[in-house]
Amino acid sequence: MPLLKNPQRTRRAGPLLRTGTALGLLLLSSLPASLPALAETVFPPGSRFGFEAPSDMSVSRRFTGFERREGGATVSIVELPPNAFPDLAASFTDESLKAQGFVVQKREAVKIGAADAYLFTGEQPADAAAGTPAVKKWLLLVGDASVTGIIIAQCLPSAETEASMRAMLTGAIVRQALSLDEQVQALPFTIGDPAGFRPVRVLAGNSVLLTKGPKDQMTSLEQPILVLAQAVQTPPTAEQRDGFARSALYSNQTMKDFVIERSQSYRQNGVDWHEIVARAKDLPSETPVVVAQTIRFAPDGYLRAVGVVREDQRAGTLAKFREVVDSVQIK
Fold first, then answer.
1. What DSSP line would sit under 40-70, residue for residue?
2. Where exactly does CATH 3.40.1000.10 map onto the chain?
3. Which of 2, 6, 1 is nearest to 206 (CA)?
C-alpha cells in the first residue's frame, strides 16, 4: 500500500515512522523559550495524549504536539501500538539515547494514570561548531494498555524549571481511542465531495487513506486508494515544483518502474497546482498500476494527494480522484 513521504525533511512525526527515525527527528530539534503557568488539558487533534499546556503554547500545525507561538519550546508526541512499550523500555538505554543526541542525567519510573511510564531527564549538549546552545530535554515513555506514547519536551536551560516540566509531562492524560469519524473530523482539512470513496484510516493526524469498495485491507490493490496529506512547511518555489513533485513520487517505496505519462504545473481558482500521472508496478504483487499525484501549494505548505488504481481499472477513476482533491478545503 503506498505511503506518502515528503521529499523534504519535516518536523512532523507519527506512528508510520519507524521508532528510531521518529525519536531521532524529535531529539535533534533545538528550541529556546520560556514556559508559563499551566492551563486546562488540551489534546492535539487526533491524539490520545493530552496535557496542561503553558498559556503561550498552542497546538502545532507542523507536528503532533505543542509549540510556543513565539518559538522556543515544543512538546512532540508519537503514538505506537501498545506492544511496543516493553521493547522500547529495554532499548532506551543511556548509550542508545546519547547516540540520538540526548544525554540522560536521570531516569525514573512514574505512573500516568494506571499506565507504567518512564521519565528521562537530560540535555542535548551545546555544539560550538554549529553555534547552538545546550537544550534541556525530557522524554516520557508511556505504556498504556491500548497505546504506547513517546513524548519529547525541550527548551533552553534558563527557560523552565525541572519541577514545572515534570508537572506538565507527568500530568499527561490518556483518553480512549477515537473513532474513525472522530479522527477524520480532527484532520486539518475537510473533504467536500468523497466521490464514492470512504475513509479507512487516519495517518499521523494530518493524512487520511480512502478507498472505493467494501474491503478495508487490500493485498493486490483490488480497489483504488487515495491518500490525502497536508504538510505545513516552506513550499518549493515555482521553478522547483516539478523536481519536488517527481522526487515525492519516486520516494514511494511500494512501487517501481515509474513511467510518467504527463507532468504539469497549472493555476486553478487562484491556486498553484502540480499534477503527475504515471504508470508503475505495485512491488508486493507486480500488478501494473496508474498513479495520479496532485499537489496544491499554499504560502505556508501544501496538500498532497496520491491516488493508485490498477491499470485495468483506470477508466473513470482518475477523474474521481480529481473530484475528491478539488473538493478539499483547508481548515
1. EEE--TT-SEEEEEETTEEE-SSSSEEEETT
2. 19-174, 180-330
3. 6
Q: How confident is the model over 77-134, as pLDDT tens digits?
A: 999 999 999 999 999 999 999 999 999 999 999 999 999 999 999 999 988 888 888 8
| Cβ within 8 Å of residue 68, ≥6 positions away | 31, 33, 35, 54, 56, 57, 74
Rounded distance between C-alpha atoms, residue 257 and residue 280, angstroms? 5
Q: Write out pLDDT tens, residues 251-264.
A: 998 999 999 999 99
Q: Does domain 19-174 have CATH number 3.40.1000.10?
A: yes
pTM of whole model > 0.90?
Answer: no
Question: How big is the CA angle at 179 (ends 176 and 184), to the nearest 5 degrees?
Answer: 125
Cβ-based neighbours of 273, under 8 Å, separated by 6 or more:
265, 266, 267, 294, 295, 296, 297
In this structure, are residues 215 and 224 in contact, taking their beta carbons and an 8 Å threshold?
no
What's the CATH code, domain 180-330? Answer: 3.40.1000.10
- Contact criterion met (CB below 8 Å) for 211 and 195: no
Q: Are strands 115-124 and 255-268 parallel, antiparallel or unpaired?
A: unpaired
Nearest to 56 by CA among 78, 77, 33: 33
